[in-house]
Amino acid sequence: MQQFALTERAAARITEIVAAEGTQAALRVAVLAGGCSGFQYKFELDTETQPDDLVIEKAGAKVLVDPVSLELLAGGELDFTDELMGSYFAVRNPNAKSACGCGTSFSLD
After folding, report:
1. Pairwise CA distance, residues 7 & 82, whole Å
2. Mean pLDDT (whole number) for 35-57
3. Where are the domains of the chain?
4. Pairing mode, if any, of strands 86-92 and 77-83?
5. C-alpha 60: how far from its chain's center?
6. The domain 5-107: what is its CATH number?
7. Can you give the pTM of this predicted structure?
8. Pick from 106, 104, 102, 105: nearest CA to 85
């Protein structure tokens, strides 16, 4: 199974967020059922790594992905976008067949 990757921009932003929080947290990336297209991405800081988590470390940043979410994210990449419309984490997911306009949910068919 292909892993999930992290861009330099995403790693830099995660490092900034964690430093501002003053903790040793990681960014947990999860896929949940719901959203307007069937699945939605969830991002949250987490200070506890679970035994079955995939741990991705890059440039001082740490990302955690649970096994169920990893199946839906395999081969994907987490990026950080800073545009006129706003700043946000974006997942490039080759498994998603369609996405909603807001970019936070997707479907597999």
Report:
1. 13
2. 89
3. 5-107
4. antiparallel
5. 16
6. 2.60.300.12
7. 0.85
8. 102
Which amino acid is located at 104 in the chain? T
Nearest to 59 by CA among 8, 5, 2: 8
> Pick the residue with more confidence: 103 or 15?
15
Would you say the C-alpha torsion 77, 78, 80, 81 has a positive or negative sign?
Answer: positive
Closest of 17, 27, 15, 45 to residue 91, by C-alpha: 27
pLDDT in tens, 50-101: 999 999 999 999 999 999 999 989 999 999 988 887 888 888 888 877 665 5
Residue burial 39-72, b: 16+ Cβ < 10 Å; e: rest: bbbebeebeeeeeebbebebeebbbbbbeebbeb
DSSP secondary structure code for residue 53 in this structure: -
Q: Write the CB contacts of 67 (distance below 8 Å, at least 6 apart in sequence).
A: 52, 53, 54
Q: What are phi and psi of 52, to 5 degrees?
A: -100, 10
